[in-house]
Amino acid sequence: MEVNDSRCFKIQLPNGSVVDVLSSVFEEIRKWVQDTESKPESGGYIIGYCHKNSGNYSLESVSHPYCNDLRSPTRFDILDSQHQIYLNKARRKISYYLGVWHTHSQMIPTPSSVDWTDWRETLLLDQTGCQYVFFIIAGTVEWRLWVGDFETGTIEEVFECDKNSDGIYLRESNEIQ
């Protein structure tokens, strides 16, 4: 999925539910893409919520790098207390921590061994407001999304739902949504 595409995306999850990744997520991430050699890696938390009636999720916004975060061309570590303040403010609006995002200088990002280690640790130590924890990596051209499943302990890449020729998302039964 392209980094410069700022529409809302519907992503199919392994359990059959859907996550809407809202345009506000990409509007913020786009500001931090490593599109020049001088830009360091960036990242932050992802917040969102679960829809009670449908069981679907929405990723609605992300925190961004702050001055006390560790940033280099190939590493980002959340260290600044402003991220926790961001999560606390979100909680008052009934939105919760659902994952993390970061950038890579690759056109089409691939998780590093450090990413896989961090993600596995996240699955063991963190909790979100749902069955999954979400991991976004934004490259210079495309972004990709992985989900960690707290129930199974697995991490897998997930993809945009099918659309018809008019760009309208299709239900699993191929009905128009």
CATH architectural arrangement: 3-Layer(aba) Sandwich
Order of helices and strands: EEHEEEEHEHEEE
Question: The CATH topology, please?
Answer: Cytidine Deaminase, domain 2
CATH superfamily: Cytidine Deaminase, domain 2
Distance between the termini: 21 Å
Radius of gyration: 16 Å
The global form is globular
CATH class descriptor name: Alpha Beta
Account of the protein in words:
The strands form two sheets. Strands 1-2-4-3-7-8-9-10 form an eight-stranded mixed beta sheet. The protein is α+β, with helices and mostly antiparallel strands. The protein is built from three helices and ten strands. It has one domain: Cytidine Deaminase, domain 2, CATH 3.40.140.
Summarize the structure.
The chain is of the alpha+beta class and 177 residues long. The chain has helices at 23-30, 82-92, 113-125; strands at 9-12, 18-21, 43-50, 57-62, 70-72, 75-77, 96-103, 132-138, 143-149, 155-158.
Tags for this model:
single chain; 177 residues; alpha+beta; Cytidine Deaminase, domain 2; 8-stranded mixed beta sheet; two-stranded antiparallel sheet; 3 helices; 18% helix; globular
Tell me the layout of helices and strands.
Blueprint: E1 9-12, E2 18-21, H1 23-30, E3 43-50, E4 57-62, E5 70-72, E6 75-77, H2 82-92, E7 96-103, H3 113-125, E8 132-138, E9 143-149, E10 155-158
